[in-house]
Specification:
Blueprint (H helix, E strand, L loop, with lengths): L13 H14 L3 H25 L8 H10 L4
Amino acid sequence: MTTLMKRATVYFDPAIHRVLKVKAAETEQSISDIVNEALRHELAEDQEDLAVFAQRAKEPVISYEILLKKLKADGKI
């Protein structure tokens, strides 16, 4: 099965590009493979974060001012 790939132009900081080239050579991967893997990882983390936000959406909200007062009353600040 062939996976269709889309082409894009990405401009890297020269230092990052050097690191990518070295890593690609050492791991015998293409720069595209490394970048795709990194983006998949980041997007998966975003998905996890959104799931946590959804789970916590019904938690009570407390203002910063009230939180500080509570901390002071509890002797924590």
